[in-house]
Structure formats: C-alpha cells, structure tokens
What we know:
It is a single chain. This protein is mostly helical. It has one domain (11-134): Recoverin, domain 1, CATH 1.10.238. It is built from eight helices and two strands; from the N terminus they run ααααββαααα. It has a two-stranded antiparallel ribbon. Strand 1 (79-80) and strand 2 form a beta hairpin.
Amino acid sequence: MKLFISIVLLALTASALADGAPPFGPCPEFMECMKSNGLEKEDGKEIFKKLQAGEELDAEVQKKVGCTAKCAMEKKGIWKDGGIDSEALEAKMSEFKMLDTIPNAKENIKECAAVKGTDDCDTVFQIMKCMKEKFPFPPPTA
C-alpha cells in the first residue's frame, strides 16, 4: 500500500503529521493548518481514507489539502521560497529511518520536489501524489 497525503502525508507527511515518533499522528501545527484552511479533524480522516483508497478529491477539497500540507511544511521548514527544501525533507525522513530503508529515496525526493502545479497549494498536492507513488506507507522497518 502506498502513501499520499499521508495527509498528508509522507514524510512530508511524516514530518508534517508526526509529532515525534510513530505511529504518525497530527502535530499541533498541522491541526492549526487544517483549521486555517477550513478543514476539521473528521474531514482529515475522511480525506485520508479516500486517498488511501485511490479515490479522487473534488477540486475544492484538493486545494484545502494542498494548502494545509503547505502550511504544515512551512512550519516544519520543509517548504521554503515556493518549493520543497529537499535537504530539510531528507533530514526529516532520516529521523524516521526512511532514507535507509527505502531504495532510491533521495533520488525520488528530488524527482518529486521538481513537480509543479498551478499554484503553491496545487504544487504541494502534486508533490504528495508523486511521493505516494514512490514511497510505501507505512514505511518499512529496519
């Protein structure tokens, strides 16, 4: 099974969602970002289920998810100056031993970080879709 968002959320996700250690759970910053983008905790659960099932989101919800993830990544130092800071993301993934256990992780991060959308929120959503394709979830254990 692979990840999105894990909601949102890979290690974008691990980082955006995790508050220190697995199992991954929403950190306070992520919850603030959800609220500021018009999403409630229950919305997040439903969205996550849809994404895990491979279902598409409607455009409004997709925008809210992308903006929420962008907000959380900004707070975690992963989104800077209109793009993913690959080094910061790699550092966050290292905290969860993801770089050591996932083949081609650094190359996949760079590939996904180069994806562009119609605006910053869409770019984040498209990056998350790319990462869903590249990284298993939950991450393998070493």
